[in-house]
Amino acid sequence: MSQSGKPSMCAATAPTSPAVTREQALDAVRTLLRWAGDEPTREGLRDTPKRVVDAYAEWFAGYREDPQDYLRRTFEEVAGYDEMIVLRDIQFESFCEHHMAPIIGRAHVGYVPDGKVVGISKLARVVDAFAHRFQVQEKMTAQIATCISEVLHPRGVGVVVDAVHQCMTTRGVHKRGVSLVTSQMLGSFREDARTRAEFLRFIDIDSAGK
């Protein structure tokens, strides 16, 4: 639970349906191959179901992770450091929950500590934990920021995500060379224009939106 009493956006996602066996997953891939018009028993596709299921286990490992765990070990011996901390260009891969198509992008995460900091690799792990699920970019952006805010209790948090959606570039409107940018600002990043501008300057995004 968050401090507001509402369910935390950080928590690991609990299964809401009966467990699916590996063999059921393999059969599902074979069915899709047949539906696409091919024969899963031919030599080139014989091992494809196994490869797809193994890939899914890696791509969606975030359902088995609790991002809060990465943020719980903090450091307070930082000589009173209380300025902004920014980790830029965190590359990630995710999948659109509407078409199961890849989302490839990078996230920028910043926060102003209030007495404690977290190891920088943990910020990247939080991004990956949320990215390795079926996602909507807007939701993922909010989840990352809220998780950091709820666990670290900093004075402010800023998250910007810039990503390309293959559901738009390889199907539908087929528009290449476009990316979606989303942001979530909490605490001083939302309330103080100077703090927000400093963060955007650090990640090289013009605060005027140009």
What is the gist of this entry?
This protein is of the alpha+beta class and 210 residues long. The chain has helices at 22-36, 48-59, 67-71, 120-131, 137-152, 166-169, 188-191, 193-202, and strands at residues 74-75, 85-96, 102-112, 117-118, 134-135, 156-165, 180-187.
List the helices and strands and how they pair.
Blueprint (H helix, E strand, L loop, with lengths): L21 H15 L11 H12 L7 H5 L2 E2 L9 E12 L5 E11 L4 E2 L1 H12 L2 E2 L1 H16 L3 E10 H4 L10 E8 H4 L1 H10 L8
Parallel strand pairs: 2-5
Antiparallel strand pairs: 1-4, 2-3, 3-6, 6-7
Describe the structure.
- By secondary structure, this protein is of the alpha+beta class.
- The protein has 2 domains: 22-59, no CATH class; 69-202, 2-Layer Sandwich (GTP Cyclohydrolase I, domain 2).
- The chain has helices at 22-36, 48-59, 67-71, 120-131, 137-152, 166-169, 188-191, 193-202; strands spanning 74-75, 85-96, 102-112, 117-118, 134-135, 156-165, 180-187.
- Helix 1 crosses helix 2 and helix 4 (120-131) runs antiparallel to helix 5 (137-152).
- It is elongated and about 65 Å long.
- The model has no long low-confidence stretch (mean pLDDT 91).
The sequence of SSEs as H and E is HHHEEEEHEHEHEHH
What CATH calls the topology of the largest domain is GTP Cyclohydrolase I, domain 2
Low-pLDDT runs: none
Total count of domains: 2
Query: How many individual helices?
Result: 8
Radius of gyration, Cα only, in angstroms?
20 Å
